[in-house]
Amino acid sequence: MTRFQLNLLTLCLAFVVITLGAFVRLSDAGLGCPDWPGCYGHLDVPTAQADVAAANERFAQRPVEAHKAWKEMIHRYAAGTLGLLILAMALAALKRSDNPHQQRVLPWVLVVLVMFQALLGMWTVTLLLKPLIVTGHLLGGMATFALLGWCLYRQGNLFSGWRVRARAGLRFAAGGALLLLICQIFLGAWTSTNYAALACPDFPTCQTYWWPATDFGKAFTLWHGLGINYEYGILDSVPRATIHWVHRLGAVVITLVMVTLAALLWAQARADTRWRGMAVTLLAALALQVSLGISVVVFHLPLPVAVAHNGGAALLLLTLMAINHAVWRAQDHV
C-alpha cells in the first residue's frame, strides 16, 4: 500500500468514525458503556447471563442495555483502528521518500490529536456526557478529519499548476469561510450535546416566533460543574431554544458567505476553468447540508437524517479545506 493510499484509507475511516459517533450520540447510547475503555469491565459487551448479572451489580445505576452498549463499542473499535492507521502514517513519514510533498510533521500532530481525542472520549463517559467535553470530542474528530484531508491534498500534490487571479483576496475569502464554518460546527455540536435539536420544532419560525424568547447567559454557560448527569440535557426550554436559534442564524450567515465564495471561485474561471468545478462542488455540499438541517426540524429529528447532517458538515469542511489548499497552491495568472 502506498502512502497516498494509506492516507486515503485513513481519511475514509475518519469519516466513518465521525458518523458512528453521531449515531451513538443521537441514539442516546453515549453512556451505553458506563466505563472506559472496556464495557462493564469487558473488552466487548457482556452477553453471558453470569457476566450480565455481575455487570448489573457493579453498575447498579446503569444496567446493561446490549443494543446501546454495542453501538458504543463499535464506535470505540473503529476509533481505535483509526488511531492505529494514523500511527502507521506517522511511522511511514519517518522513512525516506522521493515525494517532495511527503508530510513528516503533520502525521505526528495527528497522533497527538488522536491521543487527546481518546482522553476526551474517556471524559465523555466518566463526566456523564458533559456538553463541553462532548462538543470538544466532536470538534476533535472534525479536526482530525480536516487535517487528514490536508495531508492527502499535500501528499498527492493536488491542485498543482492551477492559475488564479487576485490570489490574496481569494485567500482571505476562503480562510474566512473556513473559520466561520468551524464556528458553525461548534454551534451544531452545542445544539446536539444540549439536546436542543427540537427546541424549535417549527420552520422557519421558532416556537411560532421569528425571534423567540432568549437566554444567552444560560444557553452558552460552558461549565456547569462536575457530578451532574447531563444525559438528555439540564437546560430549560428557553436556553435550548436560544442555542437552536443561534445555530439557525449561523446557518444563514454561512450560506451567504459560501455562496459569495462560490461566486468568487466561478470568477476565477477566466484564469483556469477548473475553478468552476470547485465552485459547483462547494454549492452542492452546501445545498446538501442546508437541506439536511431543515429536514431535521421539519421531520422531527429522524435518526438517519440527523446522522447525515453530521456527515454533511464533515464533507463541507473537507471541501473548504480543499479550496483553501488550492488557493494557496495556485499560481498567479499573468
Integer tally of domains: 2
Which percent range fits the helix content?
55-70%
| Widest sheet: strand ordering | 1-2
- Tell the overall outline: flat
The assigned structural class equals mainly alpha
Secondary structure: number of strands: 2
Element pattern in H and E: HHHHHEHHHHHE
Task: Quickly count the helices.
Answer: 10
Strand content: under 5%
Biggest beta sheet attributes: 2 strands, parallel
Report the end-to-end length measured between terminal Cα atoms. 40 Å
Average pLDDT score = 94
Rg, Å, rounded = 22 Å
List the quaternary state of the chains.
single chain
Low-confidence parts: none
Membrane topology: Multi-pass membrane protein
Pathway: Porphyrin-containing compound metabolism
InterPro entries: COX15/CtaA_fam, COX15/CtaA_HemeA_synthase
Protein name: Heme A synthase
